[in-house]
Amino acid sequence: VIRPEPCGVCGSRIRFGKTAIKCCQCQLLLHTKCREQCPSLCVPRPHHHAWPREGVLADFAPSAPPLVPALVVQCVTEVETRGLTETGLYRVPGAEQLVREWKRKLLRAGGVLPALSSVTDIHVVCGVLKDFLRGLKEPLVTFSLHPAFLRAADIPDDAASDTALRHVVSKLPPANRDTLAFLMLHLLRVSQSPDCKMDVLNLSRVFGPTLVGHSSANPTPLAIMEDTPRQCKVVARLLSMPPSFWKDFVGTEQENLVPM
């Protein structure tokens, strides 16, 4: 398994690097230990019925700008309301079962989201946000622009790298661009909280694989090894850009991003 996915029998996630069994007809994926509990007959079904996370970011975005999905807004709002005093925000994992349950609940709710205030552990809310972003068909940094982001971040001169990144960000689909801007402003606030102990370097390590990903849905093991440090560099560079750049995309309509 290169990209962690849930087992079709028990529902628990099959982690990176583990061996799994996949049916070549119905695409059912399961742990090797769950083979005995597997249904004997194939039941062709859309993948999103087993794990409701299909779609690119634009599929979850609202119709009016800024084009940031309600799930992202609600998670960020909850984290900033009561999480900025928590040590290890986004680094400390939340309970996997609760993360999975709440992600499914939010996605199924559609536009009218249940309140996250009832989630006791703020790390679960962080987990839902990360899991949602990881589960998209392609990362915020799209497959086609992935090489350009890596090249821009690799430029040794800071000013030249900044200029190149601004240019590539402007080429993102509107929903990806607005959501990236919204997340960058949020992560900057997290990095500035002394209680969180999550500086830009720590956050870039956490969010590099999630936001930048790879240039295809099925990267080779070699590509994964080569991309990982460069993913972190991209996020670190993006977080070094002035907040005013990101506010140009979401700042003027910030009131639209506060969930009712």
TrEMBL record:
Biological processes annotated in GO: mitotic cytokinesis; mitotic spindle midzone assembly; Rho protein signal transduction
Keywords from the named record: Metal-binding, Zinc
SMART domains: RhoGAP (SM00324)
GO molecular-function term, one example from the UniProt record: GTPase activator activity
GO CC aspect terms: centralspindlin complex; cleavage furrow; midbody; nucleus; spindle midzone
Alphabetized InterPro entries for the sequence: C1-like_sf, PKC_DAG/PE, Rho_GTPase_activation_prot, RhoGAP_dom
Protein name according to UniProt: RGAP1 protein
